[in-house]
Design brief:
Blueprint: H1 13-17, H2 28-34, H3 44-47, H4 49-52, E1 56-69, E2 74-85, E3 90-96, E4 101-107, E5 110-111, E6 115-116, E7 120-129, E8 135-143, E9 154-158, E10 161-165, E11 190-199, E12 204-207, E13 210-216, E14 222-233, E15 239-242, E16 245-251, E17 258-264, H5 269-275, H6 279-290, E18 297-303, E19 316-319, H7 334-339, E20 347-349, H8 356-374, H9 376-397, H10 415-432, H11 434-447, E21 451-453, H12 455-466, H13 472-478, E22 484-497, E23 500-512, E24 521-528, E25 534-541, E26 545-552, E27 558-561, E28 571-578, E29 594-597, E30 607-614, E31 628-630, E32 635-641, E33 648-655, E34 681-686, E35 694-695, E36 699-702, E37 710-715, E38 721-728, E39 743-747, E40 754-760, E41 766-772, E42 777-783, E43 787-791, E44 798-806, E45 809-818
Parallel strand pairs: 1-11, 17-18, 18-19, 20-21
Antiparallel strand pairs: 1-2, 2-8, 3-7, 4-5, 4-8, 6-7, 9-10, 10-15, 11-14, 12-15, 13-14, 16-17, 22-23, 23-26, 24-25, 24-27, 28-30, 29-33, 30-32, 31-38, 32-38, 33-37, 34-35, 34-38, 36-37, 39-40, 40-43, 41-42, 41-44, 44-45
Helix pairs in contact: 6-8, 8-9, 8-10, 9-10, 10-11, 11-12
């Protein structure tokens, strides 16, 4: 809906995002603007708007406006609100209206008293209204409608155009219908609409619904009437005025023909035809997967707003610059906005805290469009980089790992909502399987049509629509709690048995910013033998450690998880067959390892290589007293099938710069917390989980400036195994640790100011000490219960060591990462 959030449907996307983002979609500017404006406080009257909907039901709005004054950018007219009480003894009505001049108010045709403070219009009734009554309130007003200070949202006069965008990214909450008509401005109140819009000078109006009247007035002005007979919330109401020409089509649909109306100035119509060439395909794809299109028409109005689009029901505000004669923006804008007519317009999130139900699913719909338009490889080609952006950037941009449900106001249009939301939708599809997944979505959209829904409602609808016992494990892990799981093959063994092999695989789960282990996660486990014969098995993983036994007809030399990328866990990876020594293996995304083969005979004996970038903490040293601090949040795994004599070099970046100081990587920002640590960076290596870390000496390091926290490390002879960045010269463990007796679960971690610690098992009166990396004591107290908190608001950015001890014995040490 508000696709301006991060990618705000932007045609300027490549310029703004650089190496970090190259996919044109509907989020870009919204997020960039929004994060600078995110601290706006909510108006008490607006916050109460949803509660008003429990008292009064708005049935219908008739908005009659003169939009002819392009000199002072003034609108004038009236809005009639027909309403009915939901409870007895209602004695007034309060409507949201922002900074207009109220000329008069009538109730059932009789002049009425009222009060207005530029935000809330309150009209007392001469007598109480009860359940079963209906009344009509008409507000006569004029003024210059407001645009949002962020740059996205509100009402715009631009040249020969006048139009509204129904949300404001800096306001709290984000609904912004109130800038041009009095309303209950919230997500839950839905009504039907009539629009009577008067224009002049060759301009005509397009609104939601169907055109029912188009007349020339005695003044020579033109009035068009649009009727929206399906209920929508206030922010989805729309008007667009310009010297438009009209492109008309008809789409076949599951319930009969649907009119398609695209309004564009004549100079744009040829480009529109080319850029919207696959609109019929998008319409058919979404109907087939989500159910029948429930609206009276498909509509787009092309306006000169350059930073996004807005999914007003049946009259999408669409940026002119994105209709440039190419299909470059067709998935991230055209299809994204259309899909909102299922997710967001038909079933609307009940509050902005569940915005992923609108925007996450519309982003996922981009993937679905690409899959059905161009094939599954095109689907994955967008899933994979969006997953990387969610995993890499969301917690850095948005103050930590966030749950999708109950998203903070400041990040309503952020990466968690759009990108992680789409990631979770992709993962849910793998949990459920295609048949149940799409059946559940159809049930939800049918059951919640023209209603608001929460994440819990969505979960219950999927259960009811599919007959699944429950989806609690999925929603608890992926939706209601923050963070990610991380899965890896810890080790495997193969024992001959007749002509087969008994293979036992040990799978481990780690956590990245999550409070507890994920359960019932379906994963693909892929085996390859030395001849690259491949067998895949399905497994279900729960908890920290799992073991699986298979009888296979091959002797595996490789076992790996999630090669199909169907579960979006805390890993990004590349796998490729290398056939020539000129091949370069890797991607441009930050954090990936780039590989270059060195030996010439690879052209006759190919290598299959998989490199994983693990967004989670590496295993600690097995031996104590190590003079290194390991990177707290990432490491690399190199695996595959290497032919004899295979040699390769590999390069990786470290980047401790922050996003605000120009760093696009930022993954090592907490690790390289001081500018004088770059000389101390080393690379450690181990063969696997059974090995311990040791220094990888055959490397070349290019620091550039030794204090900019940015540089490159080249591994001159790449080996299978794991690699991790470390700082040399810091002792993280100078005491003997008593193994296996106690562990500390810390969340959130990283954190800006507050850590919660949970001890298991708790044995009473545990000494808790926190030191910095120079060994200085920062915090010390006794823990008298299994759960306690540590305030770190005055600590500087960086890594700290938490140690638990009792009776002179040290039980555990963990890292606390402070990021502000």
């Amino acid at each position: 809906m508000k696709h301006t959030y991060l990618l705000v449907c932007l045609f300027l996307v490549p310029f703004f995002l650089g190496a970090q983002q190259s996919i044109p979609d509907c989020q870009f500017m919204k997020q960039a603007i929004f994060q600078n404006e995110a601290n706006q406080s909510a108006s008490p009257s607006i916050l109460a708007s949803s509660l008003r909907s429990d008292t009064v039901d708005i049935l219908h709005y008739t908005i009659s406006l003169d939009i002819t004054d392009f000199t002072t950018d003034t609108i004038r007219g009236n809005t009639t609100v027909r309403f009915a009480p939901r409870i007895n003894n209602v004695n007034s009505i309060s409507l949201d209206l922002l900074k207009m001049k109220v000329d008069s108010v009538t109730l059932n045709g009789v002049a009425s008293t009222h009060s207005y403070n530029d935000t809330l219009l309150i009209t007392p009734f001469p007598h109480t209204f009860n359940i079963g009554d209906t009344a009509v309130l008409t507000v006569f007003y004029h003024g210059k409608p407001q645009s949002d200070v962020s740059g996205f949202g509100g009402f715009y006069f631009q040249g020969t155009f006048a139009y509204n965008l129904g949300v404001g990214t800096s306001v709290n909450p984000h609904n912004f219908g109130r800038v041009w008509y009095p309303c209950f401005d919230n997500f839950v109140e839905r009504a039907t609409y009539t629009f009577n819009i008067t224009t002049s000078a060759g301009k005509i109006a397009y609104c939601n619904g169907l055109l029912s009247k188009d007349i020339t007035l005695l003044s020579g002005n033109r009035m068009r009437t649009w009727d929206m007979n399906k209920t929508i919330p206030s922010y989805l109401a729309n008007v667009a005025v310009a010297p438009f020409a009209e492109l008309d089509f008809t789409f076949p649909s599951l319930t009969g023909p649907r009119n398609v109306v695209i309004a564009a100035v004549p100079a744009d119509t040829a480009n529109v035809r080319s850029s919207f060439v696959h609109l019929p395909n998008a319409f058919s794809i979404f109907e087939n997967h989500y159910g029948p299109y429930s609206w009276d028409k498909v509509g787009y109005s092309l306006v000169p707003f350059n930073y996004g689009a807005m999914e007003h029901a049946t009259n999408i505000s669409y940026p002119r610059a994105a209709a440039n004669g190419t299909t470059f923006y067709e998935s991230g804008l055209m299809a994204h906005e259309l899909s909102h007519h299922w997710f967001g317009d038909l079933a609307t999130c009940s509050s902005e805290q569940d915005m992923w139900l609108n925007e996450g699913w519309a982003t996922y719909s981009q993937y679905l469009f690409l899959e059905n338009m161009y094939g599954y490889s095109a689907y994955l080609a967008q899933v994979v980089p969006y997953h990387e952006m969610a995993l890499h950037y969301a917690n850095w941009k948005e103050g930590g790992y966030l749950a999708l449900s109950a998203i903070p106001h400041a990040y309503t249009y952020g990466d968690h909502v759009y990108k992680k939301g789409a990631d979770v939708a992709h993962t849910l599809r793998s949990y459920m399987g295609d048949s149940l997944f799409f059946a559940g979505l159809k049930y939800h959209l049918s059951h919640r049509q023209y209603k608001a829904a929460s994440s819990t409602d969505f979960m219950n609808d999927l259960i009811a629509g599919t007959g699944l016992g429950n989806l609690n494990d999925f929603f608890n892990g992926w939706v209601f709690n923050p963070g990610w799981p991380h899965f890896s093959v810890d080790s495997f063994t193969a024992t001959p048995s007749g002509g087969n092999w008994i293979v036992q695989v040990f799978v481990r789960q780690k956590l990245t910013g999550a409070p507890s282990y994920f359960n019932q996660v379906p994963l693909q486990l892929t085996f390859k033998d030395s001849s690259w014969n491949t067998i895949t098995r399905e497994i279900i993983v729960s908890g920290k450690n799992s073991a699986f036994t298979f009888t296979l007809p091959i002797l595996p030399v490789y076992a790996g998880l999630n090669l199909d990328e169907k579960i979006s866990h805390a890993v990004t990876s590349d796998n490729q067959v290398l056939k020539t020594n000129a091949s370069v293996f890797g991607t441009t995304q930050k954090g990936r390892m780039t590989l270059t083969p060195l030996n010439a005979n690879i052209s006759t004996d190919s290598a299959w290589i998989r490199i994983a970038h693990n967004y989670t903490a590496p295993d600690p040293f097995k031996a104590g007293g190590q003079a290194y601090v390991l990177s707290p949040n990432r490491y690399w795994t190199v695996d595959g099938i290497f032919p004899p004599g295979f040699q390769a070099s590999a390069s990786l970046e470290y980047d401790g710069r922050s996003l605000t100081t120009g760093g696009a990587g930022c993954l090592d920002n907490n690790f390289l917390f001081a500018t004088n640590l770059e000389d101390s960076i080393v690379l450690l290596y181990r063969r696997g989980a059974g090995d311990d870390w040791h220094s990888e000496n055959n490397i070349s390091k290019n620091m550039g400036s030794p204090t900019d926290k940015f540089g490159t490390i080249t591994i001159n002879n790449l080996r299978k195994g794991e690699y991790v960045l470390a700082l040399k010269g810091f002792y993280t463990d100078v005491k003997e640790i008593v193994p296996g007796n106690m562990n500390a679960k810390i969340f959130p971690n990283p954190s800006a100011s507050l850590f919660y610690v949970e001890l298991a098992p708790f044995t009473g009166n545990i000494s808790v000490n926190v030191t910095d990396l120079q060994g200085r004591l920062i915090f010390s107290e006794l823990a008298y219960s299994e759960r306690f908190s540590i305030q770190a608001g005055t600590w500087t950015n960086g890594v700290y060591i938490l140690t638990l001890s009792k009776d002179g014995k040290y039980y555990s040490h963990s890292r606390l990462v402070v990021t502000k």
